Amino acid sequence: MADQRPIGYWLRLVDGLIDEQFARTLDEHGVTRMQWQLLNVLARGQASVEMLDAAVAPFLVAGGETTLDHLTELIDSAWVDATPTGYELTERGHGALDRLTNVVAEQRTVMSAGVAEGDYLTTVNTLEQMALNLGWRDDA
């Protein structure tokens, strides 16, 4: 195990590869990864900008980027409505999310090919525990 690369190497590499693949895949369907994340959050119900920012915080670029920077195109596409109390998916947005969910599911299948389901779940659970050990809290 002395020659094995550390977990940080693999985390950064896989994270970058996931970002690249999802960006290409979603771009083919006219959305960004951040817009995909926002659609998923809004599928759970109406949300304010603050709620959206908190839910997608790991995906925001440091330095003041907010979800507002990504909502305009979703509103222009009639996938999201702005209401006096926040934002919500439209019927058209729900349909788009359903189609995108199938595309992303295919991508996840490709990504996890050759990995046993139990191994995948163990990996996710292990990473979650490591994040908790390092001070992360799931407040979303």
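Next protein, fold it too.
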Amino acid sequence: MDLALLLVDFILHVDRYLENFVTNYGAWVYALLFLVIFVETGVVVMPFLPGDSLLFVVGALCGVGLMSYPVAVGLLWAAAVLGDQCNYMIGRKLGPRVFQWEHSRFFNREAFIRAHAFYEKYGGITIILARFFPFMRTFIPFVAGIAEMSRGKFSAYNVIGGAIWVVGLVTAGFFLGSIPWVKENLDKIIWATILIPGIIVMAGAWRASRKAKAPVQA
């Protein structure tokens, strides 16, 4: 199977893949999950890895006793915080040079521009809000580093945002994941977690660009 198709299949059926992994490899699933969340939030060229759906499915597996809720929440919170911190440091290191990068298979310039517009509009609270938007949660810490947000301020938003994101979605999966309707429509729910936030972000970025281009009235 083509790598891109395999990735799409993994994202849409992450519940099946994770359940098989837990069955075959046991506690090693925690290391895998830590790595996925850290890379998805910490490496600016890997924004396409699953985030929201992965946390929800982890909660569902905790709910049926296949995983430990406190261990999963603790490790994934640490991965989310460390990932954002790493991304922020990369942004500070590279600085404004990033605006000159061309779009490539490893760098989505359009997503970066939208993230920058979002950050310019909402400021520090963006660190928390972006946790719930695919692509944005990968680019916003990077943008904050480029914008030279103070390390202390970024860290505070990072820790709070990571806690709300991880605890909220894992807990939702814990209580809702075993409901028959949710299990039967999980693929649709996953698509919704990808498309709806994406549409909101693009609409916000479009409005921001329209305002920026509007002529200033005397």
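About the second fold: The longest helix spans residues 186-213.
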